[in-house]
Design brief:
heterodimer; A: 224 residues; mainly alpha; MetI-like fold; 8 helices; elongated; B: 289 residues; alpha/beta; D-Maltodextrin-Binding Protein, domain 2; 5-stranded mixed sheet
Chain lengths: 224, 289
């Protein structure tokens, strides 16, 4: 078996540091997910509005957040807010803000897509059965929308977890940064450590994201 | 109709984006004049707050790194700790990257950057450098049996190993176009190429080749300094005279007790040995030449 330099993981507190870094990444993405899913659902409903002003505003927001790379958004919030407005936002809070803004935009578009994908005759049939508009939403539209949304939003959550690897650029020490620190601190004594340490990080991301996608699969089956 | 709408929307979004970015880039330049006090902290403000924010690398062994017990260590960190001691404040280490060091200073998110920061004219336009505390240049390592001590009488058949994208590659291409280069992407590949005898020598940052020759028997650094001599210095926000002057006084007075030699012996000697101490250390801010 080739030397993967896995021994560096067991030096001192290295393993605990890696897990601590993983927790930072997971905590930031989960807080952002928890805020952006309800906001995204609300915004998605608003986006189906026929009002042209509402349409333009929501569309600009969505396109802006989508076009900008997340790294640029992080820099705008972390450095831009300080240099333009004089507000000092910590790296972790900046990350939560950016991931929430991004998650809300993506989520709202998923919700909008799921809502307009429900055929018009579903609304009409509900009306014919004398259901009120709120009853139509509650018993007809929302159950169908949720079923279409689950796989898409789970995909978004795992994407958000993985994208936290960018926040090391604004000084937040998360799992990938800890991995780089461990590799570099042992560069002379175990030059092959990079492979083993990155492999461990890969496994850590997998262990976090895999149960989430399994859950999605189960929910899909249950409701499908 | 739909297409036209989309185009207008994209244009709108882009204008908004440009507006924000140009605002982000333009603001500091205009603001440093009027609200200079807001961007950075003076030495008195730092002392009053009881904390100094120092940007260091957390993954550049042995200059700034985090050891297995989560403690910041290294040549830059040793100096940073001394700054904290002499100011009587707690040092708050901020993990910086090569790409965002300048931005940290422009926004005043750190008071000082001590991250292996090489002084260049381009950088000096954006930040203020204090007196230097270390030398850097290129070096060439070769087998002890056939040491390369000069590049002037280069044998046309011999090749030189470089890592792509390094200053060594640029320097050799510009100044020694007759030397055939063997380019590798990673440190590990360059290392095995030299050990397999596929080239006569390997050019890289002198700290790198010195560390390599010490950890591998049978290789020697025939040329320890090559090309332009650059220096490494602490950097502060542009215009922060108060911290800059304090740092310059500190570096000058530390020269009397040979502080940076002690720093070298504590942090770099394990990697670079004691033979190169005089080549690498700058004491009291005075460059060797």
């Amino acid at each position: 078996m080739p030397d993967l330099g896995l021994d560096v993981l067991f030096k001192g507190k290295n393993m605990i540091r890696l897990l601590g870094g993983l927790w930072v990444a997971v905590r930031i993405s989960l807080i952002a997910v928890a805020i952006s899913i309800p906001l995204g659902i609300l915004l998605g409903i608003v986006m189906t509005s026929k009002n042209p002003i509402v349409k333009v505003i929501t569309r600009v927001y969505l396109e802006f957040v989508r076009i900008m790379p997340q790294l640029v958004l992080l820099f705008i919030v972390f450095f831009g807010a300080t240099s333009a407005l004089g507000i000092n936002i910590s790296g972790e809070l900046s990350s939560i803000i950016v991931f929430t803004v991004w998650g809300t935009a993506e989520m709202s578009d998923l919700v909008r897509g799921a809502l307009i994908s429900i055929p018009k005759h579903q609304y009409e049939s509900a009306a014919a059965l004398t259901l009120t508009p709120s009853q139509t939403y509650l018993y007809v539209i929302i159950p169908q929308t949720v079923r279409r949304l689950v796989p898409l939003s789970i995909n978004l959550i795992t994407r958000m977890i993985k994208t936290t690897s960018l926040i090391l650029m604004i000084g937040v020490v998360e799992v990938l940064k800890v991995a780089q620190q461990i590799i570099e601190a042992n560069r002379m004594s175990s030059p092959n450590a990079a492979f083993g340490v990155y492999l461990t990080v890969l496994l850590m991301y997998f262990i976090i994201c895999w149960p989430i996608s399994m859950l999605a699969k189960r929910l899909e089956k249950k409701w499908g | 109709m739909k297409k036209i709408k989309l185009i207008t929307l994209v244009t709108l979004a882009l204008t908004a984006a440009l507006g924000i970015t140009s605002c982000g880039g333009g603001a500091p330049a205009t603001e440093t004049g009027s609200t200079s006090a807001g961007v950075y902290r003076t030495i008195d403000e730092i002392k009053e707050s009881g904390e100094i924010n120092i940007g260091v690398f957390s993954d550049k062994h042995p200059f700034g790194y985090v050891d297995e017990n989560s403690e910041y260590q290294g040549y830059d960190v040793y100096f940073a700790k001394r700054i904290g001691e002499d100011l009587g404040v707690k040092v708050n280490f901020v993990s910086t990257e090569a790409a965002n060091r300048i931005e940290y200073l422009k926004t005043g998110k750190v008071d000082v950057v001590l991250a292996n920061f090489t002084v260049t004219p381009e950088r000096a336009e954006e930040v203020d450098f204090a007196l230097p505390y270390m030398n850097v240049s290129l070096g060439v390592v070769s087998p002890e049996s056939k040491p390369v001590t000069s590049l002037d009488d280069w044998n046309a058949d011999d090749e030189m190993i470089v890592i792509s994208g390094t200053t060594a590659e640029t320097y050799l291409t510009q100044n020694y176009p007759n030397i055939k280069l063997q380019k590798y992407d990673t440190y590990a590949n360059a290392k095995s190429a030299l050990e397999n005898g596929s080239a006569a020598a390997w050019a890289n940052d002198n700290t790198e080749v010195i560390a390599y020759s010490l950890s591998t028997t049978g290789y020697t650094v025939g040329i320890p300094t090559l090309g332009s001599k650059d220096t490494i210095a602490p950097a502060v926000s542009k215009g922060n005279e108060s911290v800059l002057n304090w740092l310059n006084d500190e570096i000058t007075s530390l020269g009397e007790e040979k502080f940076f030699h002690a720093d070298y012996e504590a942090t770099l000697a394990d990697t670079y040995g004691l033979d190169y101490e005089e080549e690498l250390v700058i004491e009291g801010g005075a460059a060797a030449e």
